[in-house]
Write a structure and sequence with these properties.
172 residues, elongated, 8 strands, 43% helix, 2 domains
């Protein structure tokens, strides 16, 4: 029987979904409450709330697209099931085709979290974050037994800004 590891979500993975629902409800309520105002106030309010809603929606969706992957690993491959599995395809990577992995420490207000990036052909193809996976240590140990450790990478704010595009491109 083959050894297998499946990811388990931390509670934090659901925060973007809550953010999306909250932004929809707040925008709807504000538009309803201020519907009796003058036309110019309504237009300004509508534009402001629309921008707020759109930005919260984009942040929430991209956060789930990038970091909300359900992982299943056996001795041969990593199977990546996206959070929005009805819209994006499942991807699998064979360990023999991967270069290895690198780690990064990401800081938040309350703690530091380790993030593991899998590399294929010199490109980052998958992110596994300690913040989002309850069994991160088991996932990391399994990956460490299968792949070569390529080292630690300092945190790059520039890459954080463009990684949304890079990860999203993979699923289209």
């Amino acid at each position: 029987m083959s050894a297998k590891v499946n990811s388990k979500y931390e509670w934090a993975i659901y925060a973007p979904s809550v953010l999306i629902v909250f932004s929809i409800c707040a925008t709807s309520m504000m538009l309803y409450l201020y519907s009796g105002e003058t036309q110019i106030k309504q237009q300004l309010l509508y534009i402001g709330l629309s921008l707020l809603f759109f930005s919260m929606l984009i942040i929430g969706f991209f956060e789930l697209i990038i970091k909300g992957n359900k992982l299943a690993m056996d001795e041969q491959q990593v199977i990546v099931n996206p959070y929005f599995k009805h819209f994006f395809k499942t991807v699998s990577f064979y360990f023999k085709d991967l270069d290895g992995y690198k780690t990064v420490i990401q800081s938040s207000k309350h703690a530091d979290y380790e993030v593991l990036y899998l590399y294929k052909g010199g490109e980052k193809i998958l992110q596994v974050s300690q913040f989002y996976y309850e069994n991160y240590d088991a996932l990391k140990e399994y990956i460490d037994n299968q792949l070569k450790y390529l080292g630690h990478v300092p945190m790059s704010k520039f890459y954080e800004a463009i990684k949304i595009y890079l990860y999203f491109r993979r699923y289209i």
